[in-house]
């Protein structure tokens, strides 16, 4: 499919008006009430087909499986509808747009592909500067033009960062593209006092390289996300008999891929020393971001879905991960729909797909997720999730390039999400920022890394108006 095959239907709906109304409602703080109901044209097919031009702080979308159109047929299963978005320097004086009552400022800049941000128990902020192979530390309380210290270097695209134990850590774990290592650590140290100890070696690096980490609520296990080596695994998974598949799944998990995709497209779990490593959940094309939810101990993933089904299929998503759960890839997607490129290959998996909890617009490229504890933000933000959408390259009319808020009620989302930080898109072919990492600092401010122009933003609440 190309740009001429699907007109911009969103232009024929009243969505912009709905966005304006919802943005005004956002200033009242009554977000949680709206999260459980349809928001006019912010729901349904209009939400699926809308694009960056409808983004605004406070705008809500609620996409359901029934809203997703049929996939494009006959496309290369390893292909996509690609668009070339140019990254440009920020226009002079430009800052991201945030809701009324919030303000955004530059926290630090000058980095090479800054991605994951994590808050240490003592309040220091750790940054995975993936493009420079380094992990950096910002001291608690730094603001304005913060200056980091180098905690560790010489890593292949570091990404995930975890502190173990969570309350008084003795180690910092870092997931690089090819391995998981850990460093000795005492609270407040800004430079690793000892060399890296390899915990998991030999992780394959073909295609998806973002390896996130999360720690179980009891602190005894760590979770590692490993994305797929391909879009759909059509060339790297030789045929197996039903008996061979059953034997494979007995050790690797329900729906686990094989061949070059073995131990790919999964969340793995391991003990602190890396002595026991196994698949925890399968069928996740690329779980780029993970977080353990405070209070519940639930593990959540934000997932980049496949590229070959057209510009509006299939949505990226956020989902609660349970031990042994299967999420569809590569045979099924969404709520258990069969991928046409793999039709008839795994009928035994029909009905066993765990459906997503929140659907984002297709190809938004969800990269990271963090839960807010309510400090420093309005009370109704407590427990909500923030997700960085890095931005699409597989849609003629781009989506993403923003941070969204996922309202939670009793620990569960309704399925709706709200634009929180926007304004990075200048037009359909140019952007000046791509949100990559999100974290909450010790004062409750939201930190957002932009890996396009190497900047970290800090969002606070209290006074001011929407930018």
Structure description:
The protein has 467 residues and is mostly beta strands. The protein has a single domain, classed as TolB, C-terminal domain (Neuraminidase). 7% of the residues lie in helices and 31% in strands. The protein contains 4 helices and 32 strands. The strands form 9 sheets. Strands 1-27-24-23-22 form a 5-stranded antiparallel sheet. A 4-stranded antiparallel sheet has the order 3-32-31-30, with no helix packed on it. Strands 4-5-6-7 form a 4-stranded antiparallel sheet, with no helix packed on it. A hairpin with a 6-residue loop joins strand 8 and strand 9. The two termini are 37 Å apart.
Keywords summarizing the entry:
about 475 residues; mainly beta; Neuraminidase; 5-stranded antiparallel β-sheet; 4-stranded antiparallel β-sheet; 4 helices; disordered N terminus
Question: What order do the helices and strands come in, and which of them pair?
Answer:
Elements: H1 15-26, H2 31-35, H3 45-49, E1 60-62, E2 86-87, E3 102-109, E4 114-119, E5 125-129, E6 134-138, E7 149-152, E8 160-164, E9 171-175, E10 180-184, E11 197-200, E12 213-215, E13 221-226, H4 242-252, E14 266-271, E15 277-282, E16 287-292, E17 299-303, E18 317-321, E19 332-333, E20 337-338, E21 358-359, E22 366-371, E23 385-389, E24 402-406, E25 408-409, E26 412-413, E27 416-421, E28 425-427, E29 430-431, E30 435-440, E31 446-450, E32 455-461
Parallel strand pairs: 2-29
Antiparallel strand pairs: 1-27, 3-32, 4-5, 5-6, 6-7, 8-9, 9-10, 10-11, 12-13, 13-14, 14-15, 16-17, 17-18, 18-21, 19-20, 22-23, 23-24, 24-27, 25-26, 28-29, 30-31, 31-32
